[in-house]
Amino acid sequence: MRYPLLALPLSLACLLAEAACGSGSAPGAGEHADAGADTHAGASADAAAESGAPDAGPSLAGVLADGQGGPDGIVVDKTSVYWTNHTTGQVMRCAIDGCGNQPTVLASEQGYPAGIAVDATNVYWADEGSTGTDGQVMKCAIGGCPAGPTVLASGLNFPGAVVLDAQRVYWTNMGSGTTDGQVVACALSGCAKPTVLASGLSQPRGIALDGSNVYFTTNADGGQLLRCPLAGCPAAPTVLGTAYDDPLDIVVTATTIFFTVYGDEQGGRVLACPLSGCSGAQTTLASKLFGAQGIALGTTRVYWTDHDGDDVRSCAPGGCGQNPTVFASREDAPTGIATDATNVYWTDYGSDHADGRIRVQRQP
Prior knowledge:
The chain is 7% helix and 45% strand. With 364 residues, the chain is mainly β. The chain has one domain (12-362): Neuraminidase. The strands form seven sheets. Strands 1-28-27-26 form a four-stranded antiparallel beta sheet. It has a four-stranded antiparallel beta sheet with strand order 2-3-4-5, with no helix packed on it. It has a four-stranded antiparallel beta sheet with strand order 6-7-8-9, with no helix packed on it. A hairpin with a 7-residue loop joins strand 12 (181-187) and strand 13. The longest helix is centred in the N-terminal third of the chain and has 12 residues, at 40-51. The protein is globular.
């Protein structure tokens, strides 16, 4: 979810090796890049110059779809990429090897769809709503739902990030104030009333699971990283780390938590901590970012979007001397990010709510 608040059909081989296709831009893409250069990209380039950061040059990423309305959350399975269009209220699908810039609309007339997840049969997403009482969590078969998506839970207080295990869907209710956020769960088939795992939270944002616990970020005490058993923590979740300026997205491995801190005025960071907690064991993968947002684990590296820095970066999981690699640059508000065994996919939110793009680039 966005927290702070191409026209020619091409094969994926062509998208990922644009030199073989002649120009790196399909008709229409150049106009988008020019427009972005005067707004988001231009501003970040100026800021990078002032900070002494090198100009990484043009992005080599391919475009699976453009003209999207504020693309936000993104997820991938073996055959397709799925994403939410936050401003136009849509849930979309495109084959990972391309869809001729004609993605399939799985659901429309949603409020503000945000986080998204997928399993072998269905795609699930959170619709934030607009009032604090009209949020929903929905699902649709990956092949489509002509009769409309299924409502799993409704009457929610700004649901945001979504994750799954084999039995349940979990999500964050960000809440309308500073103490009414929740982490909740519901059976994949739906529930009359979601199970509250943790409550009284300050705007919980990112969420991740392992086999025993749910991990999430909140804005309490300057920003916290928290853990709660999958069965719930009615007393209080365990605090793993504090004093983060707007922590957002989160992923976990068998040993480590990786998360983004959006920050302010070049205060963005990407951090790693053991599952047991961050005290004395926190690793900074990157700092001085312009707005670290989405995060995903690749085959050998950690990838994230720098939303206001207009690029995608990566680092080895064990660290890179706070000198991450610029994976793709000259983006226009990159937001959500996902990976499979071969590629990295991300949503490029765009600057006018109608020029967003879904991007893809092969992992090194």
